Amino acid sequence: MGDASDPGHAEDAEDAEELVVRDPISAPDAQGRPKRATRRFPLFTRDTARPEGGGRAAAGDAPAPARQWPVLTVAGLAGIGLLITGLDVFRWGLVLVGVALLIGAALRWSVRDVGMLAVRSRFTDIVTYGVLGLAIAMLALMAQPHAPLKIPFLNDLLHFTVSS
């Protein structure tokens, strides 16, 4: 990793506890450590970055479920949709699963801190939740028999790929 001649490397055990910062810094954070003032990557990566919006969705003194209400909302709706699907009402249960993901995309777009609903960057989360939610809902509405949604070119495409 580094040797004693490296200026950022501590030379003995006492200096190991001393913090050496070679990047621009700003005011210290809550633990007293210097906070980075640049978006450039550090020379050495020590951990993974939290996704933007990955903080608590409610204040720290709120009970645990209240702090994670966005992900609990999406997971609860998806769970209800899967339960409905398991009770043999597959179309509307899967539509509810798709709607739950679309609600997740809307929450990720509109709410600043969404807790554990933030997995990646805001843009990637919105696109992922939105595309998957839309695809699940549309495919559920197009499922046979008696599909309430008919999109002719997708039906032709399906028959072309299956019969070829």
What would the keywords be for this entry?
mainly alpha, 2 strands, 49% helix, 6 helices, two-stranded antiparallel sheet, 164 residues
Give the gist of this structure.
This protein is mainly α. It contains 6 helices and 2 strands.
Question: What is the secondary structure topology, with strand pairs?
Answer:
Elements: H1 13-16, E1 25-28, E2 34-36, H2 64-67, H3 69-86, H4 90-110, H5 122-142, H6 152-163
Antiparallel strand pairs: 1-2
Helix pairs in contact: 3-4, 4-5
User: What is the total tally of β strands?
Assistant: 2
Overall residue-averaged pLDDT value? 78
The largest sheet, given as strand count, sense and whether it forms a barrel, is: 2 strands, antiparallel
The string of secondary-structure elements, in order, is HEEHHHHH
